[in-house]
Amino acid sequence: MIFMYLCKFDFDGNRIATVAEGIHFSTEAEKQKYLDDGYIETSDDDYAYYVGNRGAGANGTGYVRGADGKPTDAPAIVVTTEQKQASIAADYESQISELKDALATATLAGDESLIAELKSEYAEVKAEYEAALKGAE
Q1: pLDDT digits (tens, 9 = 90+) for 8-53
Q2: Rg (CA), the chain
Q3: 0.70 exceeded by the pTM?
Q4: Where are the beta strands (DSSP E) in the chain?
Q5: Dihedral sign, CA of 53, 57, 62, 64?
Q6: How far apart are CA 20 and CA 96, in angstroms?
Q7: How far apart are CA 69 and CA 40, in angstroms?
Q8: 3-class SS at 61?
Q9: Which of 57, 86, 105, 125: CA 20 to 30 A from 39?
């Protein structure tokens, strides 16, 4: 069975909405309302690319609507230095916070051996964290 799909795309060619004949519209007047709202007729084959039924594309990021109106490989995701550093911070900050809390508890309890152990572990984690941040630059 061949369906008529109407897809709406953003400026970069990403599919942002889809309606299907027989589900969202059944008359030409109903179809025309979607077309007037920026939807574009999309073949079964093209639709299969946009929803990922034809793989993830050459860059592993799927497909977008190209300038020629056909599916084309979506651009690769480029992770910025700031994004890498934010990810590293998220990984380390909870660990550092837990160590600080444990150190405060050990200090209040007067447990000198635990304090020394936690200080050493804290220094190691901070050094790893700083090295990871530098490595992301």
Answers
A1: 999 999 999 999 999 999 999 999 999 999 999 999 999 999 999 9
A2: 27
A3: no
A4: 5-9, 15-20, 40-42, 63-65, 71-73
A5: negative
A6: 51
A7: 9
A8: coil
A9: 57
